Every structure is written in C-alpha cells, then in structure tokens.
Amino acid sequence: MAKGVPVRETRARSLPVLAAAAALLGIGGGGSIAALQVTPRPAGSSAAIGFPGAGPGGVAAGGGMTPLPGSARLTTLSVPAVQIGSAGAGTVAPLRHLLQADMIVVGRSSLPRGSLAAIRRLPGVTAAQSLDAARIKVNGKYAAVLGVDPSTFRGYAARETAASDKLWQDVADGAIAVSYTMGQLDRLPLGGTVSVTGRRRENLRIAGFGTVGIDGVDAVVSDAVARWLGMPAGNAIVISAPHANLVSLASAVRRVVPRPAAVRPLVTQVTAGLPPGSAGTAVSEVTGNPGAAAMAGASRAGGALLTQVQAVSMLRAALSRLGMPYVWGGDGPTTFDCSGLVQWSFAQAGISMPRVAADQARTGPAVPLSQLQPGDLLFYRTDPTDPGYISHVAIYLGNGKMIQAPEPGMDVEVVPATTGPEFAGAIRVDPAIAAVVAASA
Q: How far apart are CA 441 and CA 290, in angstroms?
C-alpha cells in the first residue's frame, strides 16, 4: 500500500491501471485502470467513446480477528481456471520470466507504430508491451478490459495468474479471464458465459479468475477478441522499468507519444525527508497535473488533514447508508461497493476522492493503529491470487468499530474493526492530496 508522503523511496502498487484522466481507463470495483469506454453503435454510425470516472473496492490486534465477509486467508493459491478450448489459436508460449508493470500509456485511439519502439529504447526500460484497452460492458456493467497477446503479456500478470498455462491458452482460444475480485464479488460462473459488449456484443466463456499485474484491470481477452468487440487496436502500452526513476521516465515517455495520450505510473515513489512542497513537485511531475505541486505542497506545509466539521459530515453521510445493498461497482446513492461508499461519503463533505481502494490508500499519511481517529481509512488485502493487491477499504468510526460495504448479498454495516492477516494498514485523508490523486487516477 502506498502510505502517503513519509515513506522512503518505496514502490507500492496503485490499484487503478486505466484511470479516469483524459485518456486513461476508469476501473470498477476495487481496481483502477485508465481506460476508454466503448459503447455499442448502430450500423453506419460513428463510434461513441467517452472517458467517465472510475466505476466499480480501539482496533482489535493480533490473531482471532473477525474475518472480513467472504475473504480468504491470504495464502497464495492456484488460479481457478478451466480448460475451455482445444488450442485452436495455437499453443501459448510458456512463461519465461515475470515482469513488474511500472507505467502505462493509454491513448484515445491507436498509438503510432513507432511509439512502442521509442519507449523500449528509453533508459531504465527493460520491457514494454502493446495492448488494447477499453471500458466495455460485462454482463451489463462497465469493466476495464485489456486485449493482449497471451504469449507475450502473461509475464506482467501476478505470479500465480502468469503461471496458469490453462488460463492463457483459453484466452488465446477466445475466452475471457476476469480478476479474482470481480469473479468472486460479481459471482460469475467459472467455465460459464458472460455477455461482453463493446461496439459488438459477444457471449464469452470464463476461462478463470486471476489478478492481472496491472492494477485495476477487471478482465483480459485476446487481442483478436478485443478487436472483434470494437476495442481500439494498440492504444495502450505497459512498461516495465523496475529500477527507473518514475518521474524522469514519465517525462521521457510523454516526449515520445502523441498528445492526448495519458501516461500514468502503476507504482508510487515517494521520498522521506523532503522539505515542505517537494513531495508536491514529484506528484505534479509524475501525474502530469500542473496544480498538484501547489495543492500537495500547501497541504504538507499546513498539515491540512480533515477538519472536525469535514470528518463529522463524512461520517454522518456514511452512517446514513446503513442497510443499503452492496453492488459490485456501486457508487451511490443507494447501492455501494467498498470504495464507492468511501468516495460517496467523502463527497458529501465536499472532498474529492479517487474511486478505487488502492488509490484511496494514497490520499494521506499512514497512521499507526495506536493513533487511529474516526474518519481514518482501513485497508485490506483479500485476493489470494495476489497477496499484495489492496481490494477492500472501510471507514474507522472510533471505539473499535468500522463501517463497510462488505460483499454481494450483504448490506452496508457497522462491524468490529480488525487487523488480522489481511490488514494492509491505515491512512488519514489529506483533502489536498486526495484531490491530486483523484484527478490523476
């Protein structure tokens, strides 16, 4: 989890990959990926492409915690997958090595052919892969979907997902692989079918559930299927540069891709001991947000965390949603997923928050458990296919309680706050930092 400013030169997976910035994808549920939204079009009409916001996620300590609803103990497991095809598309290449996804470029349309080669030549870049990226409907709900070459892309996925020959062969044969979180929370049938709608509609078999290495991606199909669905061809590039300075790399990438393509890091680098305002400058350069330095710098200098009035307003809003149903991707006012409840509640207090849990984890400094206050956010890792993936968030109420939108079939509830094996940490929201992250995610 990214823990705000006071962290020494660390990298933390930032749950959204396609973001709701101008040309990035908006992700649903607990992830965040910058993506295009593709909507069906009647024959002969022009394509309808939009860029909405992301769609759809005293404390007891030690063992014996009350488990999060539906969560599994965080031991890595084999990715659930079924054999669907008969290798009709050719055999997928074996996994050769794992790659860290550090940055993504997403354009409104296909990127020039020379962009990929130019990025691969940049200092610090060890690998780069062309992708198709869009927000399209899966069973009627918008999801962030990638179109990939299964043989060359699988190395960017989480370890267990990358290792599943069965899953990637099925993707090559025309099936869809969905994230573990989406599969569980949307109760999708492994081996069954889902309706996938871009500019065309198709029923696709579900190959398996596994977290992709690009945070916030809800599903993956082959590039051939992506183009049949009408997703833009080659409009995205994922970059692995594990030892590069991301601020410098982002600037270099922007120089070799056309505007308005968006460039966003998939990890966060923050340096400890910076003078007031310095962290804001880094945020500005990485996100490409001209106002980020001023907002973040002023926040750090003034210690502008939540005021009492803001905290009370936000908590009252959250508590007013008690008993309302959990819906994957729900962001209010009457249905919610975990991060949707957080975003909506803060909005009622006039605070802009990013949509997904991993980005919400970047909206303020880390808080020790001994110093928790009402309004702090608690984060959890509940995806056994990728134990580092932040997939749940709750709001601390004080007196050892938290409010959360738990899982399908349950309602917004107040439960004991817990710090069991799935607990990832807590942060205190800084409205200025939250606004920067929301604008860049």
A: 15
